[in-house]
Amino acid sequence: MDAADSLAVDFHGEDGRSRTFDFSTLPMPGWRLFLARSVALRTGYSGGARTLESSRHAWNAAQNWAEFLPSLDPPPESSQQLTRAHVDAYRGRTDISPRTKYSMLLELRTQFTDPQLKGDLPAEALDAFNRRLQKPPTQSVGGYSSGELDRLTAAARADTARIARRLRASEDLLRRYREDPGQLGEDDLRRGEMLAAMADSGVVPEPVRRRQERQAQRVAFASELFLTWKDLAPLVVLLMIVTERNGESIKELPVKHRLLEDRAVELSVVKRRRGAKRWFETVTWEIGPKNRELHTPGGLYLLLLELTARGRAFCGASTAFALWRNNHRDGNTGVEEHWAPFEKNLGYGSAMKMSAWAAERPKPVLADPPPKKKGKQPPAPPLRVTFNQIKTSVDARRTRQMGGHLPSSAKSNTAQVLYANYLKADETTREWAAEVVSEALVDAERAAADAHKRAAERRGGGPKVLPEAGTAHDLEEAGMTPDIARKLADGELDTAWTACEDHEHNPETQAPCGDSFLDCFHCGNCLVTRTHLPRLLGLLDSLGALRQRMSEIDWWKRYGPAWIAIRRDILTKFSPAEVAKERKNPLPDALLDLVEAPWEQL
To answer: I need a labelling partner for 567 at 20 to 30 A (CA). Which of 109, 196, 360, 476 fits?
Structure first.
């Protein structure tokens, strides 16, 4: 591929497709050779655009640029005359959509900054191309609810099964006609004769009827042996759901594959926008038993090849999808009516009209019913079916199956792209995540309560709360020894937030206590009186503030047992009025740093 000797660039892609791009037809003759070289480098064997669709994008960007240049005053006659102002003028265009302009600029920057073109553009122009591009905002589309996805899957699977039964029944009749036509009845014999003629020639017969009826009858005849437009929607939808690949990858599924002991099939799929030289990925899909072919990616892929085999033979397709189209209006009523639409252009996917398929089935696929209005339930609308919503839904489903671990859930995208482009806007994923978080917090709280209970059992039953006692006499009346009562009343036994009856004898070890002050709330030596209430309330407020600044799970693990002990075992012993009265006064600093490193290790 040498664009220096010719203004035609021949492209031969890794997807087995080719095309010639003629630069001699572009405006601005002084730019043609430069643009031909830039596209040749971009689409060559060492370039990043190695599929037909990506090479078209490279050509479209170059063509768009060449068609823009004459609008400048004065236009640069060659690449050497390009200035920053020229590039800024392209950036400021308003005659194309922001998304198209962003896409074109991104492609042009990739082409024009190729090291082999160094010196062909002035430095100021290259600098203008290399400036940050403002990506236009996109509105993320959420996926389907679990019920909607189940209904869509069931519909696609049912229609795919009907397509397979239809074509297999015709193939069986054709086989019996060729083996022993004498065993067939009159109707089957006539139909077998027509099938044999179509199978041998690829030509669908012309019925002698009115034009409108003739078209419908030709489609019915072709449907006996070949896929037609109406068959594509359920097949593509089911393939996307079962393989968990996006629509573009499904449309470009190759014919070439390798069977692995009849258990799996290996093939190379295209995944665009993954960066240069990373557009192809070898995948291995499970085949499964024959009666499960509509449920396994390998089984469904082989079924697709079976259903399109005859059509592919007539049009020479290298991709899996081939169909018959009624091309009567163009005068092509022979073999030319067999074609592989996605080898020509991926944009033909819009002709599948997936939403219309879902809505016009004998049993339409419906969305979830909207909320009730004035006590009445409005009818459920037809489900809108798009590639993005299907991909988002299967990605969300896989993420849930993986427990929300994005690196494990990412299949054909990075974890960042999976979250930002598919999961972030998906309502079902958010609901599931909220449910998971809620369950995790309940589990964390239960674990904290269990940890407090176990520690209290080991340490003598937990704190002793004396809510009515204030003086030493009151404490003696409550069961304290005179010495402990006096020291407790005078504050000599106080620790950070409570008091300790016997610091020298830990109930669990019988040795001097060296535990955290937070562990006091699980200890039988812990004493709490009315005088400790302000400090305990201050500690609760500080723990609540800390809860807003750290992970909930980490907070419950670190501070949850103490929180449970204070709330359930201590504050409940005081009257609500007493607690409310103390809260009206300024609470002391909780001094939480007393229980954080390095102080606990001193």
So the answer is: 476
